[in-house]
Fold these 2 entries.
Entry 1:
Amino acid sequence: MFLYNLSLQAPTTISAAILGHFMGTKQQEVVVARQQRLELWKADTNTGKLSVIYSEDLFCRIRSIAPFRLTGSTKDYVVLGSDTGAAAVLEFDTKENRFKTLQYHEYGRTGLRRIIPGQYVASDPRGRAVMVGSVERARLVYIISRDTEGNVMMGSPLEANKAQSICFDIVGVDVGYENPVFATIETNYGDTDHDPDAEAEKLLVYYELDLGLNHVVRKWSTPISKTANKLIALPGSSDGPSGVLVCSEGFIEYKHNLEAAREHRVPIPRRVNPLEDTGRGLMIVASAVHRTKTAFFILAQSEDGDLYKITVDFAEDAVERLTIKYFDTIPRCASIGILRAGFLFAASESGSHQLYQFENLGDEVDMVEYTSTEENDELVYFQPHEMASLAMVDEIDSLCPMLKSKVLNLTGEQMPQIYSLCGQGARSSLKVVRHGLEVAELAVSELPGNPQAVWTVRRNINDEHDEYIVVSFLDATLVLSVGEEVEEVTDSGFLTSSPTLCLHRLDGGALLQVTPRAVRHILPDGRVNEWQPPQNREISSSAANSRQVVVTLARSGGQAIYFELDLQTGTLREYDERLAIGSDATCLALSPVAEGQRNASFLAVGCEDDTVRIFSLDPQRCLEPLSMQAVAECAQSVAIVSQMETLTLYVGLRNGLQMRASIDDVSGEIEDSRMQFLGSQAVQLCTIKVRGEEAVVALSTAPWISHVHQGRLRTTPLSYDALTYASSFSSDQCPEGIVAVVENTLRILTLDRLDSVLNQATIGLTYTPRDFILNDASKHFVIIEAEHGHYSATQFRQELLARGVVDSEEEAESAVLPPEQFGLVRSRSGMWASLIRVLNPFDGESTQIIELTDNQVAVSMATVTFASHPDEKFVAVGCARNMTLKPRACSDASIRIYRWINEGTQLELLHATVVDEIPQALAAFNGMLVVGLGRVLRLYDLGIKRLLKKAQSVVAPRLVSVIRPHPSEPSQLFIGDVQESVQLVTFNQNTHNFHVILDDTLPRYITCMHALGDGDTVVAGDKFGNLFGVRAPESVSRSLQTDPTGNRLIYEKPRLGGAANRWSSVVEYHTGDIITSIETCALAAGGREVILYTTLLGSVQVAVPFVSQSDVTLFQKLEQLMRERAPPISGRDHQSYRSAVVPVRCVVDGDLCERYFTLDHETREAISDELDRTQQDICKKIEDMRSLFAF
Amino acid sequence: MDKFGMNSQTEHWHAKYVGTGNPDISKHEWFVNQHRDTLAYYASDNSLAAFISIAEGESIARTKYNMLQRMQQPCGHAPRSSGTDS
């Protein structure tokens, strides 16, 4: 097995976000770190929409980022802390539109290690130095300056190490232009390691970089609270008092090393909650400092999601007062940032990321303030309110955290959908993920009939917006004017009593309308010049641009008439010769007019005889045939656009295929053609503009769009209804949109989000989902949800009543805050809120919710058919009561068996069977239910009152976490151990025992696995982000074929404390993120099966098995060359990254290979030369790997 | 000084790499070192930190903080008897 790994969706999490002027303009941008990707986003300050400018895969783990601006410069750089064992300064190059490494300095080994810096990066606010810190001991300070040529230079690292100290946070203190100072929170374990009576203390330490002596000194340290976790640097010099705020559990302190600086302390207000655990301090998780010319304030977010506004009153370097006040509540964030234009960027920890607009600064809202000058209680409270100061303006979908997924095709679409359990706590959801760009619908209006086509037209080339929308019906034409409102007009000069074939603006303010009976040239003054075809002949198809018009006549054996606009007379002049195509034409297209030229140089004609022909329109060789290409079916529609500086020919065929090829701009030869199946209907092509560039919309059973995205040509479906016809649209309200006709409606659509080719529909859930199964017949999901350490709404109400806080049920009801905004109410560790839900994924309706009471939690589930009831499917749910996570234990556990009632829309409890351990894994096996209880595998059959135990064996070294049945052998199963990898287990009917046949040589912490169809191979993911495949050795495989129960194998002598035989590893690959689900499925229509897996931080990837050895060799070579010639800008060695845990084996990284498209011409040429192929060849190979197997 | 310069090399390792063992290492010391390595990894790896936070129902920031906090004394107080196995 040799795999080609491709990302369908990069991780959607944001672990860190920073603001700055990364493009060097006045506009602020956001740089976000998404596991291994670095992205540059901009927020449109008018519309409040976020969009991605650039996204780059760094092939390393990004751990921290910081903005850095050299003194006197106007452009920010990004300082990157990663697992590369190096400090890197990246710049966004606006010319080449990509990130570039400015400076790079290696200091240690790669990987996530305790003493190798990279965990924290902090920059001096005045842009002179950066500090890179590790979790323990090491801290390096780099001086950054410009050399004489103006290049950014990074000095040698200066060590500021402190042995046996653990670092919690690092910030650069704003000290103006004095020596740069960095503040850290650290604890020292030197004493406590040796002296059992020693008390550890936490310190705030200032490290000063002495620029004169070029070394770093530990300048000052002061003891702080033992719960301190975060530092916020305050503006200094003339803008503020300098110093830092130390956030600890429950309060925030101001500290600074100046003599004059007095300490200030404010408590963090807590939500009013009568049931709160006062022993648990409130923690600040994210913060942002907003500076204006005259003042500054800080927004800090607590774990509950509450934002606090902290203001600092100061006079001449001395802080006089800290004030804290509740501001608003938004979902809990990993990072927040305040844009100067009045927006708050919130990178959510769970679910979609958001952009909020400030409506006020919280001054108008009457909330209690707490100040450091007054005596405050240790615990102070506030009552949260609905959003008062912020309004959400944009949301960016995120799948993170993605806990479980299934690839299913429930709706019978062309492509299967991915159903994913996502989110945590109150932000949990079931997401239906589809391949396709998200389409926003701006307007829908009804039309008097079913139109055939729609165009937009403007009178002059310089007009900003369209003037008319023209809709053509079977026997009429409707003209609408574009303005404040879209309404019908009659004085446009267009003929409305006949259908329209083609419509275009002509130079000189004229318009062109082609109807079956005439070519109508509508002059600016309203006069109409008409050309009419000969008697009994109709125009069958036509194409036009602002100077040229071509029409063909129906049933004429391919007669075409060519007109050119005569600029002097302002009339259309028929060309002397008629073009004889040779076969009846079905469709026409003119090539776009190249810059600096007047006329289009090519005409493409789709013919009845299953060919596409190219003719020259060059004045020297006018109407001369240039090339011809045979196609599989008659062409329905053709289009020529200029994409990526080449002429691209699109042909939509009647059998639903789309052909794309390039046209040589000198010879007119059709080259490099490729096919794609779009749907079962004939493909109609329409050209539109996307982000100012030409794009083609192909309409079949679904609409598709082919456009250039980040330097690459991409064909993606639009997640929308099938369209009849589409055109570009531009108006005041919608600068770049699409006008389309669907049945009897006219619709205006826009494509807002081009960066993600997957779109999601979200169905909200109550608690963190753990697992789900599908009822095949009723297409309903059963989902188990469980939340640790939180109250369910019912528990909370009951608790309030029981403690006498409220008197009635209604009062208790009103005390529950809406969890969508405020999250769930925290209870104690060891408390669970859990439920079983039956959900209809089509309308998002929960048909049944079974709340588990008595502190029970659902941990596992499976669909089972028992041999005694072969026609009925049962749902088994493993539950535990009073479950604790550390240590893993419960007071008692049970397996509940439910049967489906009401046509598979509800569950009914049949019985619950008590078991002695947490049933972590359940699976159907051999007409019975197999349960993983700790190390034990137990087999149950269905009884009337309870489950009946049939067999039990100890199989797993630690704990059975996953059970998967063998795809074909009923007596075999695969077991995933929580630490000890995968095992093949057989069941012996006679002795009623499970036997381990195969186990693994490596300890692997299995999270999910999937048995491939051959029955010998298992692919699985582990907790350290590896994808791996193991296969049964040939001898075992052969033996099991003849004897599936493994009777001979089980008597072999155990080897090295395990089974007699071991798996052999066939595939190893480090994905960099925990894999949560693996499945095999076919993604493309008619495509072969691929391995699809989803990861925790929201990425969707596929591993495509190679078919031919020659492809393997080619891609291996290509990967190797890409590693050498275009290494990732993070400086991480690609091979060592993919081998971070286990050396990579038999997997080619497709994401690296696809970077080939983005390389410059010379590098591409060099690589293709070494591979002995042409560039087009390699591009085609790489594209095919994606388009044939995935998308 | 031994023939191969072994001592000077191990001294160098001790200085350079935290947790380099010695023949007389106690069980407690060994455990503490193992735990610190593991905890530091949990705090550094975003994916694993998210995994743990979801299991525990905590925020990622809290999980990372807990890991760092536990690095102080991952295996409880140091044993009173020094040098031998605890």
Entry 2:
Amino acid sequence: MTVLNPTPDAAGASVEPPSDEPQMDRSGRTAARRRKLFSYAILLAFTALYVGPMLMLVLTAFKSLPEFFKNPTGWPESFGFGNFVEAWEKANIARYLVNSVLYTAVATAICVFTSVLVAFPIARGYLKGAKYILLLYVVALFLPPALIPQFQLILNLGLFNTRTGFILLFLVNPIGLIILVNYIKSIPRELDESAAVDGCGYYRFVFKIVMPLIRPAIATVTVLHAIGIWNELVLPTIYLTSENLYPVTRGLIVFEGLYGSNWPALAAAVLILMTPMLVLFLFLQRYIISGLTAGAVKG
Amino acid sequence: MKIVTRDYLFARGWRSAAPILLLLPGFGLYLLIAVGPSLATAVYSFTDATGIRGIAINWLGFENYDEFLFRGAASRDNIAALWRTLVFSFFVTTIQFGLGLVLAVLLNSRLRGRTIFRTIFFMPVILGVAIQGLIWKLFLLPGGGPVAEIFSWIGWSSEFLGGQPRQAFAWVIVVQIWANVGITMVIFLAGMQTIPESLYEAARIDGANGWQLFRNVTWPLLTPAVNTNFLLNIVGSLQAWQLFLVLIGYRPGTQVLGYLVFAEGFGQTSGSVSSAFRQGYAAAASIALFMLVLVIALAANAFVSHREKKYLS
């Protein structure tokens, strides 16, 4: 399961959570404190399950191979960057990164741009049968998987193991389209009326007025779609056989196949690829949320 | 012929073709690479298509289905994989739902650091299966790994992902929940934020305790989030198989239906073009999985709308 979920995250909302402690007598207060301690105990236990694996990864990335075999779990003897250099060189990380950036950027740009052009007339009901077009996007979530015929299509187009063929797979996003439609509905129709009265044409209206106005929704869909492509593992496994076309996910798994027992180098490779994602996530988390809540508030 | 409706406000005449011209690339792509192939899966399931271009494709009727469900040792494996898919889905759905709810309840109070906790629990979602899988492969290192160490303190030992099929399977369930409980939690949190504080105050004045507040205010008013999570968890876990690929590969006694489709259609660990891959058969398997998901999702949906009527009318 991916993060492609249109539900607004609670994180950005500024609503204060219900307070645990209105005016309470002394015994009520100790009970509340005990409850708080209990909450923290559970949360910290869970945190250990999330921080533990990460810590293991970081510690491993700083150990030499013999050191790792001798003592996999403990603290490393010294913190050198030898494994990172080795991983960077042997795992072709630079090339995979370039590929991933290329696939993600091109496919996301095309997908979002064409989706806006579909979403606008549907949201406004400007086209005959707009309702049915929207329905076709909604039921997509309940149709059988397209895996096999998609492969036959790419194969017969002669696009197997090509960048074009691979990018083609990521050019649509039904959930993203639904997010866009809902957001456009929140923009007052009077805007269309006054623009039309002033003699503004459809093209100019869509490109110059609608697109800037729905920027929060565009940002949301862009981020969700891009994350989905970046993390995709199965499709590159199926469609790309040349190593120089691999994105980072596939590259990592292939590196694991070759260096499976060399955990320090492998851990370093994982860490190199994970860190930018985590940093980006810390910024985007808020961004995704503000985009979604802005759409919800305006309606 | 008129393409636009009466509501259309912009210039008419030949220029009213503008909306459809702009819509066509996106909609065309959608039909070509999503809807078309999706529907064609059913057609391919009646053929002997392979992974090679240019080989004639023959019509087989129900042959693939017959073989998948009823013929020989392979069909017994398939049925076993079907049961395993249900077991996987049951454990993932119930545990992920429960943990997600507990975490959301805890984080919806005025605890210091709750944003940090929330970020930590949501983090794996952003990393994707390849990194999730590798992190846990390392964490579950048999012989000296952290989990192995902790197990040894209490006298347990385990081969983890390399152990007996049942054991490896159970660990994949653990990682699957670890990776996705953040989504469930965030959806619950979003639902909780829509519950007005005044209701809690009123209930407190009536003398309700913590459990009663949850049972009589939070739970019923959380119905939309509960339903969303319930359905998403069921459907998601029935279709999930990618962590199996990263964590244990295609091992006998561990496959779920999703992995089976991939392995029959594209090989067990990596894709390539080969006549050995029976894509018609794989299409039949994927239709079988689809029917399973559909039946269970419809049942779950009926249950959920029944609940909705009970609480929200």
